[in-house]
Amino acid sequence: MSETTTAAVAEAADNELQLLLLEDSPRDAELLIDSLGLAQPRWRIEWTRNESEFLAALERGGFDLVLSDYELPGFSGVEALEQALRRRPGTPFVFVSGVIGEENAVEMLRRGATDYVLKERMGRLPMVIERAMREVRQERQRKLAERQLREADALYARVVDSLKDYAVILLDVQGQIRAWNAAASLIFGYAVDEVLGRSCELLLTPEDRAAGVLQAEMHTAAADGSASDDRWLLHKDGRRLWAEGVMTPLYSDGAAEPSGYSKIVRDATEAHEAASAVRRAKEEAERANRAKDRFLAVLSHELRTPLAPITAATFVLQRVAKVPPECEDLLPMIRRNVALEARLIDDLLDMTAIEEGKLHLKLQPLDVHRVVPTVIEMLGNDIQAKGLRLQLELQAQDTVVQGDEARLQQVVWNIVRNAVKFTPDGGSIRLRSYNDEAGRLCLECTDSGIGIAPESLSRIFVAFEQADQEVAEQFGGLGLGLTIARSLVARHGGSLEAHSDGRHQGATFRILLPTGTAATRPAGTPAAATPAPSPSAPLRHRLLLVEDHEDAAQVMKLLLEDLDYEVTLARSLQEALECGRSDRFDLIITDLGLPGGSGVEVARAFAPGVPVVALSGYGSEEDLRSTRAAGFASHLIKPVDPEQLQTTLRSLLRHPPTRR
Fold first, then answer.
1. What does the alpha-carbon distance between residue 463 and residue 477 come to, in Å, rounded to a whole number?
2. Could you tell me the CATH number of the domain that includes residue 423?
C-alpha cells in the first residue's frame, strides 16, 4: 500500500462514516462490507438491494456517501446517480462495478459521480472513499468561507449604508472614487454610477482644487496615518455644505504603500451655521453690552453734571448767605437730596458692574471700626433730623479684615441708612460689633423701625425688590442698596443676614467678615492733612480748573475761591494746554469730556509734575482704572461733596503755594 493510501486509511480511521450501498448481488455486497469492515471498523454500511429500498434510504438520509453497482436488474446505476443527485445533492457518489468500463466511467463522472472503483481492485475503495470525503469537506469549507465572505461583505455594505449621516467614500491611489455608500448620495446628491471612476475633486470648491487640497490630504494621511479635514464641499446642485471629514490609508496584505484611501465625511452645515450664529450673537451681545456700558456712562455723566453746580452752589450759600430762620433747613435738604440722587446713579452703575463681573476691589488690611464713625458722620444730619437715639457698642477685639475701604464703607452706609430711613422719628438704632465663635467680625445694626414681614425677608436682597408695595410707595427707592451690599460682602468672603420678628418689630442686619493672620493691622491714625491756608496768608495755591459746562464751571470756580484757592478757568482742551504752558499751577482739576479732546490729554501733558485731578460724571470702575493708568492723582465723581473735595486737595497740596 502506498504512503498516500496509508495516510488516507489512517485519516479515515478517525472518522465514523455512514455509507449507503446499492448492490443486487448478496455475494458482492458481503465481500464489499467485509472488506471495508476489516479496513475501517468504525464505518457503518446500510445495504439496499433494489430501487425501492434505495429510494427509501435516500428519503431517510443520514449517510455520508453512496456506493452503487453500475448494472442492476430493472434499475440502472445511471438512474441511481440521478436520484441521489436530485434527493441528496452534495453527497459523494462512488460506482463499484466490475463491468462499468472506462468510457462509461468517464460519462458518469461527467454526470456528477464522484469516482469509481473496479471490483477486482477493491483495495482502492477505502482510499477513494476518504478522498471523496476529504473533497467534500474541502468543498464545504470553501462554500462556508465564500458564504461568510458574502455575509461579511453584505454586513459591511449594510453597516456602511446604515450610516445615514456619514458618507463613506473609497478612493484609489490617484484619488478616484471606487466605492460610494448611500449616505454619500444623500449628502452630495450624486448616484453611485455618476461618481465611480471620477476624481474626488468633484466635491471640492474651485479654490481648493486649485490649491491641491486632495493630494495634500492623501499625502498627510499616508504620512501620519490619518488626516482630519473640515472645509466647505460642493453638492451636485452647486450649493456649499460644511463637511467634517477624516481620511485614512488602506493597505493590501503586507504592502508598504497604500493601495487606496477611505474618506468619511459628515454634513455639519447646520451645526456650523448654528455655531456661527451663536458666535455672531455673542459678538452682537458684546457690542450691545459695550453700547449699554457706554450709554450708562453717558447717562451717568449727563445726570451727574447738572447736580454738580447744585451741590457746589448750596455749599457756598450755606457758608455766605443769610437765610431767614424759617428757611434754614432748605439748603441742607437740597444737599441731602442731591446726594441721594447721586447715590441712586451709583447704585445703578454698581449693579450693572456686579452683574457683569466688572466690579474690582482693592483689598488691603482694614480696621472696620474706622469705617463706622465716617458713616455716622455722613448720616449725622439725618439721624439728628429724625431725633433718633444711636447706641454704639463696638466691642469686637479682632477688627482687621482684608477689605476695600470704600466698598465696605458703602456697605455699612447702606445698612445704617436703611435703619435711619425705616425707623420712625424718636426711634432707636443700635450698632454693635463682636467676634463670633469662628473668629469672624460681626457688625450688627438693630433698629426699632417698621420691621419686615416673614414672607418678605427672602425678597429684600433681590435687585429692584422691596419688602412690599406699601413700603415701596411710602419710602421710595430702587431696591438696589441691599442687593449691592450683600454682593460686596460676598466679594469679601463674608455674608450679610437679615432678621425681623415681623412688621413693626424692628429689624437686624448682620455683616459677617472673615478675619485672620493674613490681615495685618494697618498703621495708626494717618497723618493730619495739611491745614487750609488762612485767609490772611499772603499766597494762595493756584489751581487750573478745566470745565466746559458753563454752570458747573462758574459755581465750581466760586466754590474753590471760597475755599481760598486762586482759580484760573479753561473751557476746552486747547485753552487748558495754553494756560498750562504760559503759567504755573499747583494743581489742575479737569473734566474728562472736553471740547477738542479729553481730560486724559491734560494729565499726559502736565502729570506727574503737577498733580491732576479728574472731576467727572464718568465714574465707572473702568473709568477709574483708566484715569489711574493715565497718571491722574485722583478721580472725583460729580457731584462731589465739597468736604471730600477739600480733603483731596489738601492731601495733594503739601508743598507751599507756587509763586508766579
1. 11
2. 3.30.565.10
